[in-house]
From TrEMBL:
It is found in: Cell outer membrane; Membrane. This is Outer membrane protein assembly factor BamA. Part of the outer membrane protein assembly complex, which is involved in assembly and insertion of beta-barrel proteins into the outer membrane. The gene is bamA. It comes from Candidatus Nitrotoga fabula. Residues 24-91, 92-172, 175-263, 266-345, 348-422 form the POTRA domain.
């Protein structure tokens, strides 16, 4: 039989017939030209077997099948005396992939991306994949604002049919936004509109925010922010006509132009409610509607009103309620009326509650905080409360809840809660800076979610020159199924007050106790504790006369049996980023008369958070303390109240406020049996950070006083400070920094302007 050769490319074979051959029976098949590929692999892809009849159609199909594997750059078929010979030319394999000049993107990340495109050691080399990788690398740099990036690739042939790939990258400089121009605005200044945008021209914080680097996604978000602002301000017909983004020839600067049409300002002409009244009356629905006749149109108020009605229906189980505000626009009068069409739908119950994302925390730790039960009627209020309860565990950085309809039915839904774990082990340090003492540190180690059980274990070890503390605390928040908690504390505490603002003394206290917490409601708890402690005192020549009188009365060593009762209420919307709600705590501690001392202490704290806008939150905190002895016994001086420093009056040295021992020219704090603290704080996001919630700032005013010793009154020691504070949830943990300035400083006051606390997560 005459030798017939069939060869060609896949695309050619798919459109052009191979040279005609006479059909013949395949007696045998041989593969030639393979180096790495096994012959069995070729046979597995070859659609021709021994005994088959080979013709033009089957020959073309065989060549296409082998090309489709990607293993070969050339495939030919030859026929000799009934034997089908498959001649292949293998594509080279990749011996190495080298990346040069990359700084902004981790090389490991790039290697993973290249691997997903088929470019990795040992893989078959494909030129199209190399081109695709080059374009993808450029795209990643453009996304980072580096429009001048250059990517050159080289392919070096090696022995044994291998190639070496090299990516040479010249990153270039990041292109900066040179100007943002807004055209068509009349009602609001360009400065006001640009303040709504994340993108900005370079400023003093751009190195951190990167907001001077153009991003298509950021621009889209900024345009939506502007649109929402206009629609919330009455401009019903507002539109963004076009946006232009241009880059200079040197690819260093970007210009953004936004063209918009404001349209007229609309007011609300009327508000009506339509729908059945057997579930929710129209009168009750109107009370939930925020937007009123005569108001300036606001899309936000309209949306919030619809949500209020939906949530109210949801409290009664109507999870699929549909509330639509149908507009009636009068363009001549620039007025718009709304009819809220209320459709309650069917009442629904919860089929399943699914929890995901808790890789460490046990499922039951989350489920026991739920107030919405499976098999019960759906309730938006219980869902919201469940989210708050899980949020306040403080085990998660994110807590999200979704309700999902059950397919095929109209009266069931599933609740899906997704959490994002955060480190609950905490190694915390606190520090203050002054010219007299320098840097003072404290520290502790806490695991608030022991082995994912929700139990709390804290070990504090402090070997500083002021406080030497060794303590161990354990709390089981669900000692019983109904939420009764149990805990114990063991401690040894040595104090050397010589290095503080206090009158100097040394004390060594060892003790321990047990605690029980009983829930009153989801937001209220009572606490009961009993403990015993022994204190040994050592005075110095500089100790105050009050301390010396105490030792004369009680002696240098005393033992106390303490009983305490507490009450707390916490209705904050979030423990992660508080914007609304309040926290109250009341505490009574009594030294029982069976021991050496008889005294009692009363403390109360109330913190209130109120949202002023979406970004600004106002916080007021008040604390009061009162202590006294009974049975003719004085209050031990080391049980006195103190004030000053972080947590009370910032800007003053810790313990520095209150009565002082001024005898013999000393200026040491004595503390007191009365304490009053007040804080007012305006919390807001860090300017330039957009919606990033990792950094929060505040402007504060603190006030505080301690009195009661030597008949010193409240006003004599009352101090006011003001300042600026920053809270940053850093990778190392929460960092709180404050700079405080006194408003009524008096001679002898001990100031400490800069103070901070830092928690390190592990």
């Amino acid at each position: 039989m005459k030798l017939k050769i069939l060869a060609g490319l896949v695309l050619l074979l798919s459109t052009v017939s191979a040279k005609a051959i006479e059909p013949f029976e395949v007696k045998d098949i041989r593969v030639e030209g393979i180096q790495r590929t096994e012959a069995g692999t070729v046979f597995s892809y070859l659609p021709v077997k021994v005994g088959d009849t080979l013709d033009d159609e089957h020959a073309a199909a065989a060549i296409r099948a082998l090309f489709a594997t990607g293993f070969f750059k050339d495939v030919r078929l030859e026929v000799r005396q009934g034997v089908l010979i498959v001649l292949v030319n293998e594509r080279p394999s990749i011996a190495s992939v080298e990346i040069n000049g990359v700084k902004d993107i981790p090389k490991d990340t790039l290697r993973e991306n290249l691997k997903s495109l088929g470019l990795a050691d040992g893989r078959i080399f494909d030129k199209s994949a190399l081109d695709k990788a080059e374009q993808e690398l450029k795209r990643q740099y453009v996304a980072k604002g580096k429009y001048g990036v250059l990517v050159n690739t080289s392919v070096t042939e090696l022995d044994r049919n291998r190639v070496a790939l090299v990516f040479n990258v010249t990153e270039g400089e990041t292109s900066k936004i040179k100007n943002i121009n807004i055209i068509g605005n009349r009602a609001f200044s360009e400065k006001k509109l640009r303040s709504l945008m994340q993108l900005d021209t370079p400023n003093w914080i751009s190195w951190f925010t990167k907001n001077d680097q153009y991003s298509k996604q950021k621009l889209s978000a900024d345009l939506e922010s502007i649109r929402s602002f206009y629609l919330d301000s009455g401009y019903l017909e507002f539109s963004i006509d076009s946006t232009q983004v241009s880059i200079t020839p040197d690819k260093e600067h970007i210009y953004i132009t936004v063209n918009l049409t404001e349209g007229p300002k609309y007011s609300v002409s009327e508000v009506n409610v339509a729908g059945p009244e057997n579930i929710l009356s129209h009168e009750e629905a109107r009370k939930l509607i925020k937007i009123k006749t005569g108001d300036v149109f606001s899309r936000k108020e309209l949306t919030d009103s619809s949500k209020q009605i939906s949530d109210r229906l949801g409290e009664d189980g109507y999870a699929f309620a549909n509330v639509n505000a149908v507009p009636d626009v009068n363009k001549e009068k620039h007025q718009v009326g709304f009819t809220f069409m209320v459709d309650p739908g069917s009442r629904a119950y919860v089929r399943h509650i699914d929890i995901s994302g808790n890789t460490k925390t046990r499922d039951e730790v989350i489920r026991r905080e739920f107030r919405q039960m499976e098999g019960a009627w759906y309730s938006t209020a219980k869902i919201k409360r469940s989210k708050q309860k899980v949020d306040r565990l403080d085990f998660f950085s994110e807590v999200n809840v979704e309700t999902l309809p059950v397919p095929g039915v109209n009266d069931q839904l599933d609740v899906s809660m997704t959490v994002k774990e955060k480190s609950t082990g905490n190694f915390s340090i606190g520090a203050g800076m002054s010219s007299t003492v320098g840097l003072v540190f404290t520290g502790s180690v806490t695991q608030r979610n022991l082995f994912g059980t929700g139990k709390n274990l804290t070990a504090q070890v402090n070997t500083g020159k002021i406080n030497q503390i060794y303590s161990l605390s354990y709390t089981n928040p669900y000692y019983t199924d109904n939420g009764v908690s149990q805990g114990f504390d063991i401690f040894k505490r040595d104090i050397n007050a010589t290095y503080t603002a206090l009158a100097p003394y040394l004390s060594s206290t060892i003790g321990g106790g047990m605690r029980i917490g009983v829930p009153i409601s989801d937001f209220e708890h009572t606490h009961y504790a009993i403990s015993a402690e022994n204190t040994d005192l050592t005075l110095t020549e500089l100790s105050s006369s009050q301390m010396k009188d105490y030792v004369k009365f009680y002696g240098p060593s005393t033992t106390n049996l303490l009983a305490s009762v507490g009450w707390s209420q916490d209705s904050r919307d979030s423990a992660i980023w508080t914007t609304a709600g309040m926290v109250q705590r009341a505490f009574v501690e009594v030294a029982l008369p069976v021991a050496d001392q008889q005294f009692y202490k009363l403390t109360y704290q109330h913190s209130w958070f109120h949202p002023i806008t979406d970004n600004f939150t106002f916080m007021i905190n008040g604390e009061a303390g009162y202590a006294d002895g009974y049975g003719g016994n004085p209050v031990p001086f080391f049980k006195n109240f103190y004030a000053g420093g972080p947590g009370s009056v910032r800007g003053y040295k810790p313990f520095a406020l209150g009565p002082r021992d001024t005898a013999n020219g000393y200026n040491n704090s004595l503390g007191g049996t009365r304490r009053l603290i007040g804080n007012a704080e305006l919390l807001f996001p860090m300017p330039g950070m957009g919606k990033d919630r990792s950094v929060r700032m505040s402007v504060f005013v603190d006030a505080g006083s301690v009195w009661g010793v030597a008949e010193t009154g409240l006003t004599d020691n009352l101090r006011y400070t003001t300042g600026l504070a920053v809270i940053w949830v850093s990778p190392m943990g929460p960092l709180k920094v404050s700079i405080g300035m006194p408003l009524n400083e008096k001679p002898g006051d001990r100031l400490q302007a800069f103070q901070f606390t830092l928690g390190t997560l592990f």
